[in-house]
Amino acid sequence: RALEIARREGKFEGEGWRVRKDGERFWAHVVIDPILTPTGGVIGYAKVTRDLSERREAAAELSRSEEQFRLLVQSVTDYAIYMLDENGNVSNWNAGAERIKGYSASEIVGRHFSVFYTPEDVAAGGPQRSLDTAAREGRFEKEGLRVRKDGSQFWANVVIDPIRSEAGDIIGYAKITRDITERRKAQESLDRTREELMQAQKMEAIGRLTGGVAHDFNNLLMAITGSLSILEKRLPPDPRLQPFIQNAMLGAQRGITLTQRMLAFARRQELEPKPTDLIKLVHGVLEMIQHALGPTISIKTRFPSAPQLALVDPNQLELALLNLAVNSRDAMPEGGALTFEIQSKSITGEANLPPGDYVCLAVRDTGEGMSEDTMARATEPFFTTKGVGKGTGLGLSMVRGMVDQLGGKLVLKSQPGTGATVELWFPTAAGMSVSERQDAAPAPATQKQGLVVLAVDDDRLVLMNTTAMIEELGHTPVTATSAKDALAILATDVPVDVVITDHAMPSMTGLELARILATERPHLPVIIATGYADFSDQGSVGLLRLQKPFDLEDLQGALANPVPAAAT
């Protein structure tokens, strides 16, 4: 047959098995050409045989290797592995690419790989730039957004390697894409957690510093207000002097307000929570708030018909609402509306609050709103978007500190141009009405006269003013600059009727002194004077506290109802 083909067609060429003398087979490439006479007759054949056994074995090995590689690539489903031609068109497609990007091989082979890029990246020349980088530098790798067949986007890690011919010319590209969306979300969550931890640590440090500064500032204000009140009483009426005394007292009162804000932010303020109907409380301050807002801003309310009892400090909440209203006014320079809304809700775990029943008091304005960056920092101390001299930056931080201290939470909601909403979540006052609380309040006692009062304070300025006020009330003061000195005085024969002690003192605190007196002198009344809530209620229940800075009237009320040390 080989000779017949060569005679008929002028040549025979083929490959097949051949046999050597010893019977061994080899793979041969055979060429047979007819030898012709001048008249065209065949007088023989020229035959060339080439042993291709090694080449065939190499080709078979290559084929097996390629098949294994194909099976390997096709079995990978976590990576999109495919090739591009020199122009960037997809030339093959694996199962991982179909899973990640949504296209079947028949849908995508032959199309340009820019279909996987976002419109913004395509407009910016991203696809071609990646091929140029791979060709120039030998590799391209980048993370970015890519687009699936259904239009959804995912975050991808992309690697492109050029494929070159033996001559060094680029004949295509190998491309590997990995979906790293979940990894990126996990990393972003970890970064947020770290940032929140750092922010919490920073805020805790600032809170400690703020609380300590406010405590010292309280003592200074105590000295100022005490001295001014005594001067006002002892100086003869003089219309030329009274305005200056009143002006100094007004300045000191502003300092007290600032100190209260600082203590509320630092969660060191002495709060007096009690069951309070928030609807009644808001109605009670609306007139004052309207005066503060001016005629260009209207006030609206959305309240349920039933009373909404929450456990709050009424005085501090009124101050907080006034702060929020002033912030809203500044955000509505052209006027607008301010809405107060109250609703009750049971929390089962959302809103980052412990499960339970809460009352939400929302203050909503129609002002300029806040960006995400501004909202993230709005409750930081001393952060303000107002001009220089137009705000301390303690308003929202004070409100947040007060709400947190009461076991609630402050929630900010806002977008630029759509106004802002501040939600104050408070625990409900379950099982106790306002009237019951008022009925349970003890009747004020009659004022006692001629008491011997032991005043204990490590700040001599405060001690001097406390002594002067005790004398002004008709009592006899005895002074000590430490708890140790107070115990030494009490060990003598000095007939002390009541002890007024500062709490935050070195070596021994006022509460520790009260506990010693509860054992040694259980019938001796003790009053703790502090503006710094740095001790828990445990072990101090029933102990009378005098809020610093206090004036003559506050001191007179405390001395009217002193509590024996045994109550601690």
Explain this structure.
The chain has 568 residues and is α/β, with parallel strands linked by helices. The protein folds into five domains: 2-57, PAS domain (Beta-Lactamase); 76-179, PAS domain (Beta-Lactamase); 198-265; 274-438, Heat Shock Protein 90; 445-567, Response regulator (Rossmann fold), CATH 3.40.50. Helices cover 42% and strands 25% of the residues. The chain has 17 helices and 19 strands. The protein has helices spanning 2-9, 53-75, 95-101, 105-108, 119-123, 126-137, 181-234, 242-265, 278-293, 314-331, 372-377, 395-405, 434-440, 460-472, 483-490, 510-520, 552-560; strands spanning 12-19, 25-36, 42-51, 79-85, 140-147, 153-164, 170-179, 274-277, 297-302, 309-312, 336-347, 356-365, 409-414, 420-427, 452-456, 476-480, 498-502, 526-530, 544-547. The strands form five sheets. Strands 9-11-12-14-13 form a five-stranded mixed β-sheet. Strands 16-15-17-18-19 form a five-stranded parallel β-sheet, sandwiched between helices. A four-stranded antiparallel β-sheet has the order 4-7-6-5, with helices on both faces. β6 and β7 form a beta hairpin. α9 (278-293) packs parallel to α10. The protein is elongated. The protein starts with a helix and ends in an 8-residue tail after the last helix.
